[in-house]
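I hope you will forgive my troubling you with a question about protein structure. The record follows directly beneath this note:
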Amino acid sequence: MDTAIEERSQPAQCDAATMDEVVPAEVNCDSKEVDIDANPFAGASAPPLMDDAEAVPAVSDAAEPSEEKPGALKEPTSRVIKTPQGWEEEGILFPHEGVRFLMQEFSDAVSTMDPAPAWKWENLSTWYQDYFYTVVHHHHDAEEKIYLPWIQARVSVPAKIAADHPELMRAMEDLSTMLKQGASLPATQRAEHLAEVQKFLAAFVEDMQQHLAEEEEIIPQLLRDGRFTHEEEAPVIGQIIEGLGLDGNKKALPPMLHAYACWAGDEKAEVFVSTNLPMPIQFLYRNFWQQDFEYRHKGLLASLAEGVDTNPFASRWFC
């Protein structure tokens, strides 16, 4: 293994200047007491319905054409639903746009990654296991065990929707193995291995995009055919959210809300937090989970790029 590479891959400590380059925000470790003796997920429900057009924050015409105004509305990245109509389409976009956001983050990271240092593979593997695999696996699991059976009780659900999940999960297991292998390979073989990861990931993303599109074509219509109501769905979504637990919600909720804000607007995302999340979960989200998203989630990915020569997560205390 190249000694020079290994020496710069294992720094004794991280200087402040380097941290500023790759870490969007510092972690606020101040703690406050919160009573969560009761079920912290009580009252959790689905995203609120979109208000009429007049209630949606407008994008200023005065903004520079080449600059995107923070909080500006965009179309959903869905291949199927560009202008969501009703709670049936809005509801399925909430998790799906979050998954697509994570896939875009993943694809962007490996396209600009410096494959030589072993610690970059370790950081990528950590991000993948903690923030991608956990979230997407739970999404598939919740569909199979909770959401689709709920629909099936009233209308027939095409078998292909659930049948795609095992193959997608096998691909995710393969990705997990490939990322872990990157750190153990000789430095001279890591660039070639990264090219294989990029190719495999591109195929996985396309399969996932097709799967999500099929669900978006079918599930909203099934909900309408079965005459389901938003009020009936709310406790089902609450059960799914509760199933993630606190750690799962810490990893899933911030990217889901980030993606939601991109197409529904910052105001709608804030309404979701303030009206649909129980107070203990609001407290954790605002005081800890958002910082984890900005600092560790994004920081792990930012550390992979060419030109970042010091691991910002080496010898670093986290809370």
Notes: The chain is about 65% helix and 0% strand. Residues 254 and 293 are 6 Å apart (CA to CA). Residues 1-21, 23-37, 52-68 have pLDDT under 50 and may be disordered. The longest helix spans residues 190-225.
